[in-house]
Amino acid sequence: MKHLSMAVVVKDGKVLVQERYRASKGMVVEFPGGQVNHNETGTDAAVRELYEETRLQGLKHVATFSDVNEYGGRIYYAVLEADEQVQPKAVGEDRRQTFKWLNLNELPLTDFYSADIQFINKQLPEFCTA
Question: What's the predicted TM-score (pTM) here?
Fold first, then answer.
């Protein structure tokens, strides 16, 4: 059973998404994140994955939400606030990463997993008000 954690970075009413290449799916749009390691909290995993994928660090943690993912494991959404000057950096050419700060109504919901869509619709609006 796979436990996953997503870093949901908000800034000025917008949320950070990355477009990146995955060998199994091609280009995907998603929150930075990945697998939760043994003896790691969902929030700690999100912060670690965020750094590994964007080099962002030192952001203010404001909330963590949890649900069940498509694999039957837990999925965590750690909401982090970023200052205005914060910008992610692409890591590894093979990822073909680009980053965007999007308003809620700009999120391509059809690109996200069902647990992500539930989080986006239920909890994210509280943190994406300008």
Answer: 0.91
pLDDT digits (tens, 9 = 90+) for 102-118: 999 999 998 888 899 99
C-alpha–C-alpha distance, residues 130 and 122, integer Å? 17
Q: What is the DSSP string of 54-91?
A: H----PEEEEEEEEE-TTSSEEEEEEEE--TT------
Q: Cβ distance 36 to 42 under 8 Å?
A: yes
Selection from 62, 61, 12, 71 nearest residue 36 by Cα = 71
The answer on pLDDT for 97 being more than 90 is no
**Residue of 37, 39, 40, 18 lying closest to 29 (CA atoms):** 18
